[in-house]
Amino acid sequence: MFATTPLRIVAVSAGLSQPSSTRLLADRLAAAARERLAAEQDRKVEVQVVEVRDLAVDIAHHLLSGFPSATLREAIDAVTEADGLIAVTPVFTASYSGLFKSFFDLIDNTALTGKPVVIAATGGTARHSLVLEHALRPLFAYLRAVTVPTSVYAASEDWGSSGDEYTEGLPSRIRRAGGELASAILGRTVSGASRTPGLEDGEDAVVPFEQQLADLRLD
User: Fold this and answer.
1) Which residues pair with 85 in a beta bridge?
2) Tens digit of each residue's pLDDT (9 = 90 or more) over 197-209
3) Do residues 80 and 104 make contact, with C-beta atoms less than 8 angstroms apart?
4) Alpha carbon 19 to chain centroid distance?
5) Of 30, 64, 78, 193, which residue has the fewest beta carbons closer than 10 angstroms?
6) Distance between alpha carbon 115 and the CA centroid of its chain, in Å?
7) What is the pLDDT tens value at each position of the chain, 219 positions in all?
8) Helices 21-40 and 170-185, axial angle in degrees (round to 10)
9) Of 117, 118, 120, which Cα lies nearest the Cα of 91?
C-alpha cells in the first residue's frame, strides 16, 4: 500500500429515525478517530457512513434471493475494505436491532478478521448499557474483528452531560474510543503508545498491537 493511500474509517449506523441519535453518535466517534489519526500521521483520512435504514429493502431482497443489489454490495465492500470500523445500533428488546444484525449477517465471517472496531449503542435508559458486552462484542468476536477496549453507550440523559467526579461524560468516552481506534489502525497499542519503555521507566514493555492480535488468535 502506498503511503499516499488514504486511511478509511467506515461507520455503520442502524438508526431508524431522522435525525437519529445513533447517527449522531456514529458521526462523533468517526470525528474523534479522524482527529487523532490526522494528528499522528500524514496520510489523508476518509470517513464514510453506511446508513442501514436506507438499505433495508435491499437487505431483505438479498436474504431472500442471495443476490445483493449494487448499492448493498458497495456498502458491504466499504465495510470489509475499511481500515477501521465503527458499528452503532439502537437498542431494541435489550439487544441490537434486527436491521443491524441482518446487515452484518450478510458479511462473511472471515471478512473482518483482524479489523479494529469500535462498538456503540444508543438507548432511552442506561439500564441497557450491557448490550455492548452481551450482544455486540460476541457478534464481532464471531466475525473475528478486534474490538477496542472502550465501547460507548449513550442513553438519552448522556447527551449534553459532561459527567462528574465519579463518571466520565459521553464526550470523554467518545474521545477515548476514537483514540483507541486510531491507535489500532496505526498498529500501535490501543493506548496510543508508540515506544517501548526502557527499564528505567519502571514499566513493563508495551506489547505491539500486532502481537496482541497474534496472541488473541492463539487463544
Assistant:
1) 10, 117
2) 333 333 333 444 4
3) no
4) 20
5) 64
6) 10
7) 455 789 999 999 999 988 899 999 999 999 999 999 999 999 999 999 999 999 999 999 999 998 999 999 999 999 999 999 999 999 998 899 999 999 999 999 999 999 999 999 999 888 889 999 999 999 999 999 999 999 999 998 888 766 555 567 899 999 999 999 999 999 975 543 333 333 333 333 344 444 444 444 443
8) 50
9) 120
C-alpha cell at 52: 442501514
What cell does 201 get?
A: 521507566
In one-letter notation, the amino acid at residue 91 is V
Residue 169 is placed in which grid cell? Answer: 461524560
Q: Give residue for cell 508508540.
A: 194
**pTM for the whole thing?**
0.82
Give Cα 108 distance to the centre of its chain: 17
Q: Which residue has the cell 449503542?
A: 121
Cβ atoms 28, 181 nearer than 8 A: no
DSSP of the chain, one letter per residue? --TTSPEEEEEEE---SSS-HHHHHHHHHHHHHHHHHHHH-SS-EEEEEEEGGGGHHHHHHHHHHS---HHHHHHHHHHHH-SEEEEEEEEETTEE-HHHHHHHHTS-TTTTTT-EEEEEEEESSGGGTTHIIIIIHHHHHHTT-EE-S--EEEEGGGTT--B-SSSB-HHHHHHHHHHHHHHHHTTS-TT---S---GGGTSPPPPPHHHHHHHHHH-
